[in-house]
Amino acid sequence: MIYSWLCILPPLVVILVTILTRNVIISLASGIFTACLIATNLNLFSAVILATQRLFQETHISGLTTGNNLDHVYTFSFLFLLGVLIQIMNHSGGIRAYTHFLLKFIKTPKRAQQTSLALSSTLFIDDYVNNLTVGAIMRPVTDHFKIARAKLAFLLDSMSGPLCMLIPASSWVAFILAQMQASGITNSDSPDTLIQQDALFVYIACIPFLMYPILIVFSVWVITLFNLSFGAMGKQEAEAKKTGNLYGGKPPLHVANTAHEQLQGTLLDFILPISAFILGFLAAIAYSGKSVIFGGQAHFMQMLQEADPFWSLWVASMLGVTMALIVLLSKNSLHNFYYIGKAFWNGFMLMKNSLIILLLAWTLSTLLKNDLHTGTYLAELLPHDLPVAYLPFLMFIFCLGISVSTGSVWGTIALMLPLAIPLYYKLALGSPTFLNNLYPLLGALFSGAVAGSHFSPITDAMIMTSFSAGCYHLDHVRTQISYASSALIGSLTGFLILCSLPSTFSYGATIAVCLGTGVGVAATLLFIRASFGKKE
Asked: Do 456 and 6 form a contact (C-beta atoms < 8 A)?
């Protein structure tokens, strides 16, 4: 189809229907149908066929016969098995035992939230593993202290993706390095090389310019340390403290098993399955990445680039469930055999809505990318003749818009890097500050992609986090926007300041001024909003 403003209509429909219905499934379905109508020139019959085809394609079921592209099959299986794992650990009493253990050391709501952030800081290798694991561990603890589920979701989402971007030892950075090399940043002297530099060195140098990831991690710690509460999140927290309802006055999403279904568990009932899950994931990453540990040739970063995270998550969940079953059956109760079948059914019911939402979000994202070319249309609006100093600010805005519209961080990066690197090479080649100006440009690109995922209702990160925290998806979207907006404004300000800095500024001075300004703006907004929180 010809690129036009119509390609941004489906995301707008999703937002509008969300406001009207407060039902994310209906909203995403409306966006998919709108996208299909536009892609088929308003042919109703063809639109229905296209929607059906795309939905089926996004299940990746066809890969079962070809052996190719099974990512979504692995993801669905992983989520289902994770639901089963939670059910088994709950029945065995493992979750309750671990909660009681943590409560010996966690005495206040503030400490509970800080513990969640600290745990997230140790699981930076993958965002799915991060927020799902920490959510399973911390949800019973935060429930004990009457912390709103939406607040837990914010704690998880603010740390998982941003930490994967900030720490150059994650699945995210492995993906980004591969994209950077494909876009022309390599050590080789091949004809395709535009910038002859080590991609990892360039990435590390741009980390101080990852304005939004830095500011959102900074913001969530400030909010936690100073007990700041305002906006939509403030209302959820006030409701939780006053009535004990952790869902903003709504009915609970997932009702826990009743006491008579739980056995008297021990710490091992929790630690062994979770350890099997985490260690299994790390081993599967090393195996699929052809690590030297398993006789391959790949060292750490090469391993992460080659690894299959979706297969690894599936393997990890299989090992976690297997270990949980072994622990449960070792209790020698005949009732446990009956409960195993029930756990699998309850695990599916626990995950059902999340699986549907995830499928719809993937389908809409594919339609926007491959059928409507929404990201390409937005990217082509980027001016190609502006001074280099303005590029980071514009890049941040464009990547933010693309990420919000398409719901994909990785998709935004994969689209924009091949456009941004040649554009920068054309505009800045020969400049004495060539590399120093490249770092903030890349930082802005990656920052905008991450920021968009925190403001888009159709991103898989939002969906996963909503499930992990056990909160209503749209509540998570609304409350996170309320809290993350300070980091977003701080990032915009930092990149705007960058436009006015003289080219003679050193790398360190540029970081100090831009990042310092962004931190100051974000912190000021947080405290101002908190001081007027009761009036919002």
From this structure: no
In angstroms, the CA 58 to CA 70 distance is 10
Nearest to 452 by CA among 415, 498, 484: 484
The two three-digit tokens of residue 303, written as one number: 């391993």
CA atoms within 13 A on the CB side of 354: 29
Condensed to tens digits (0 to 9), the pLDDT of residues 470-510 reads 899 989 999 999 899 999 999 999 999 998 888 778 888 99
Residue pointed to by tokens 């060292």: 299
Q: Using an 8 Å Cβ cutoff, are 116 and 138 in contact?
A: yes
Tokens of 73: 């099959």
pLDDT per position as a tens digit, 362-389: 888 788 878 888 777 777 777 767 778 8
- Which residues, at least 6 apart from 152, have a Cβ–Cβ distance to it below 8 Å? 116, 135, 138, 139, 142, 469, 470, 471
pLDDT in tens, 440-475: 999 999 999 999 999 988 888 888 899 889 899 989
Sign of CA dihedral 288, 294, 295, 299: positive
DSSP codes joined into one string, 469-509: HT--HHHHHHHHHHHHHHHHHHHHHHHHHHHHS-TT--HHH
470, 147 contact by CB (below 8 A): no
Residue 291 phi/psi, 5° resolution? -70, 155
SS3 271: helix
Residues 331 and 431: their CA atoms lie apart, in Å, by 71
Digit-coded pLDDT (tens) for 42-84: 889 999 999 999 999 888 887 777 767 788 888 888 888 888 8
